[in-house]
Design a protein that fits this description.
Elements (H helix, E strand, L loop, with lengths): L8 E9 L3 E7 L2 H6 L1 H7 L3 H7 E8 L3 H12 L5 H10 L7 E6 L3 H11 L3 E2 L3 H16 L5 H20 L8 H28 L5 H5 L3 H11 L10 H8 L2 H12 L8 H35 L1 H7 L1 H11 L2 H6 L2 H5 L4 H10 L13 H5 L5 H21 L6 H19 L6 H65 L4 E6 L9 E2 L19 E6 L7 E7 L4 E7 L7 H12 L1
Parallel strand pairs: 1-4, 4-5
Antiparallel strand pairs: 1-2, 2-3, 6-7, 6-8, 9-10
Helix pairs in contact: 2-7, 4-8, 9-11, 9-14, 9-16, 11-12, 11-14, 12-13, 14-15, 14-16, 15-16, 15-21, 15-22, 21-22, 22-23
Amino acid sequence: PLLPLNAGRKLLYILFEHASGYGLFSVKEFDEVAVLLPQVESSVTDLSKFQSIVKLSAFQAFRNGPNSLDNINAIAAGALHPDLQTFLEREVPKSNKKVQVILGVGDSRAGLTITEALGIPCQFSGVVREIMRGIRTHFPHFIKALTETTASKAQLGLGHSYSRDKVKFNINRVDNMIIQSVSLLDQLDKDINTFSMRIREWYSYHFPELIKIISDNYMFAKLTSLIGDRTKLTTESESQLEEVVMDSTKVKAIMEAAKSSMGIDIGTIDLINIQMFSKRVVSLTDYRKTLAEYLHNKMANVAPNLAALIGEQVGARLISHAGSLTNLAKYPASTVQILGAEKALFRALKTKGNTPKYGLIFHSTFIGRAGAKNKGRISRYLANKCSIASRIDNFSEVPTSVIGEHLKQQVEDRLKFYETGENPAKNIDVMRSAVLKATEANSKALKAHKKRDKKEKKLKEPMITHLNEITGDNTSATAGESQKKKKNISEGNEESTEVNTTMDCSQMEMRSGKKYKRKKQNPDSSINTTQEEIVITADEVPKKIKKTMKRNADDSIEVSVLLQEGDISKNKDKKKKKAKSR
């Protein structure tokens, strides 16, 4: 127990939090239950035995889904929700000299807050755990309106909303795409290099002089697919070659080398295969460029400060090596410094040699520009700034690159200090200006986001009105068609019965001969439905139940109408008229 218990009779109440609401259970004499702990453990699975020990005292259901989520969040945080406070104040009796009331709870933090706020002593160990286990098992049996299916649905819905609230998933800031993109980029670099070497070796059998003239792999693959057979090069193809090479001197060198080449003749099928493979390499290189642009844009959304400080590709490799941006933000600066040089680190620890000074951050421009003596210093300083930038990117709501640019300027000033001895600006002054500019950028981004939302709403409004107009035209057209059918049938001098089906299907009338006016619709009714008039001749109707579908833009109502068989002919009407005239 959290508070010392007084002597006397003790009453134990159990507070059970369910996805559907709060339940308060009264337990048999507390002292007896404490003594009979083995019996309680054995009776948990048996409902009849468990109900002899535990009884439902009160139950308060949650109003809706958001209300249940608020209550569960408060319980998870160890706070006392106002709904729970009013429920306990109303249902739990107060202790006196003869009887002491104890409240059993499942969480120690919730027990502490309840004791501090309401003064009710709470217990969360011993027999309370076994009783709560039984309540959890048999909870639907205690509440009549709650079944096992509804309880499981409530738990599933609350679990989804609780997880969604905790995760706060944002699809625009997913770092998994960065990890896959940078891995694919590295693989494409290796594959393009291998394939380019293969094309150079393959095409050099036919045109070996082209390797010395063109050193770029992408340009060489383009020329291979363009030239094909070197013997077919003419003066007309010089313009096409110049579009690829962008150098007239190289074009002249290619034309002269093609005339006096030492290469062998090649078959048409072999040449077609070389050209197809060179086109594939060109397409891979183009895709590599688009992938690099995609990575640049993705890093600007996910980690703009890290990208501004160290570059998109190096920052993406750091995120990929750490596993996620969150993991990178958790690493200290010393780990970020040697990230990617784990083999060298463990080898140095085994041999008791010098540990590596840098890992993946070596590929940044700062370490290459530093002198040999200052490489270790600048790597430590850069790793420190990288850890700060990754933490800002991970925990900021609006991504901006303002602080990353200031951090980059600090690294540049540190490089100047190592080279020239010029003192850089103080860190506190730089950070103050960076924070001010970052807040301005955040406010601008929020305003732009609001404007974008307003524009989207304005664009959606005419579409909604257009859809409403379409649905209105359809309903009016269907009503007009039904009226036309009715006129055609009445003009055929056939006796008809008219059935007017109303919305609530309460009135059904059978009439012959005359038409009657349609009933006016109640304007105050919440459901706007159109009344249909169904005209059916009595000769064609058998004695059975026919179902007519009453359709609206929103819902369809099925109305069953019992049509009676009537055999009424023209002769009978004439006889009746003659009798009346006499």
